[in-house]
Amino acid sequence: MGNLINRLLLRFADDRLEKEFARDYVERFVPQLQVALGLTFIVLISDIAVDRYLYATESLRANYVRGFVVLPCIALALALTFVRFVRAYLELLFSVIILIGSAGLFWALLLLDRDGGLGLTSGAGIINYVFVILLLFLISGVRFEIALWTGVLVTGVFLWFAAHDGALQDTEFYAYSYHIASMFLLSAFLGYWREWFVRLVYQFNVKLDHERARTESMLHELIPERIVTALKTRTPPIAEPIGEATVIFADIHGFTGLTNQLGPEHLLEVLDKLFGAFDSATDAHKIDKVKIIGDCYMAVSPSTSGKDAAFRAIECGMLWQDSTKAIGDALDIPLELRIGVHTGSIIGGVIGSRRWAYDYWGNTVNIASRIQTAADPGEMLLSKITYNRIRPDIGDLPSREVDLRGIGKMTCYSY
């Protein structure tokens, strides 16, 4: 029953979505309402002038009512559209004012009828009623639910005045009421489908915004924010030279053995927990996660301050070590990391015509990767340049000479 009422009154089933739509709709329909009320004011002025010209004596009382009741109502409604703090109640206020104003309009038409002019029971009366109903359902832009109950009351007021006009016999009044009801239903039908389309477009835009935000969030997970911003206005390749950054590689020791020891699902579960913890650590230290290659995790700590970049990378690596030990102990699996860290200049950027990939290149990346392969299980191995960035704060570290494939011998420091 509740779903049926929601459909008939054009409400979203999701209360939160309905409230958001209502707030958004009020802001959007205000300019339309202002134009509608401005046109209504002009039409009423024209009616007063025309009736004054055609029925000078007969229209005297009707024009007094129009001028001192109806026009002030329209002017008040128009003025309220410019008051921001009443926007949340604007539709309700507009409906109440229109109800009062239409009652004044129908009263004026009744007086015009009684004084010998073309009033309530003539074609002019029906035209005025239709104008008010169309103003509610179509011209003003008020939501259908509010326009519906207001329209019912307006129609009731109009028929009440018509019943007390005295110009219609019973059978004539019934026929008159039938035509009025038909016009009300037709206007309500048009108003229903107008708002149905508006809501359909709104719902589509909400979904589109959600998907756009989801896509952008995914991009931010894969690509640094500054590059995402650049991609909005440029196409790859996008190069980003970085004068100095600290590159950190981490590799799971004995991963090949784990693949034989654990089933596929269990293995992926372990990797998901482990690299999920790594992601949290990189986010906490404002480090760019670059990629995962098998069981190897790469991140970059770019900074204008070499010391700051090196410290963040090393602190992140320590968290990786702690997370690895904690997850290994919890799962009763021997997990250890080998971490390599090196500092130097790199080039970042996006390449690819279809599947974009953000990566870093340069000798610094190659050296960091080679240092990681030279590290012992459970060890974080730093290059000399990285160590020099942090040495004043951490003191001496044990060192050893390692032979890096394709690079040669290099002194590194165990942290």
Automatic annotation (TrEMBL):
Compartments (UniProt record): Membrane
Lipid bilayer topology: Multi-pass membrane protein
GO molecular function: adenylate cyclase activity; ATP binding; metal ion binding
Catalysis performed (reactions): ATP = 3',5'-cyclic AMP + diphosphate
Domain Guanylate cyclase residue range list: 246-372
InterPro entries: A/G_cyclase, Nucleotide_cyclase
PROSITE patterns, per the entry: GUANYLATE_CYCLASE_2
Entry EC number(s): 4.6.1.1
Entry-linked CDD domains: CHD
Ranges that cross the membrane: 33-55, 67-85, 92-112, 118-139, 146-163, 175-193
Enzyme category, top tier: lyase
One Pfam family it belongs to: Guanylate_cyc
Gene Ontology cellular-component terms listed: plasma membrane
Listed SUPFAM superfamilies: Nucleotide cyclase
Superkingdom of origin: Bacteria
Example of a GO biological process term: cyclic nucleotide biosynthetic process
Entry keywords, A to Z: ATP-binding, Lyase, Magnesium, Membrane, Metal-binding, Nucleotide-binding, Transmembrane, Transmembrane helix
Record's protein name: adenylate cyclase
Organism: Roseovarius indicus
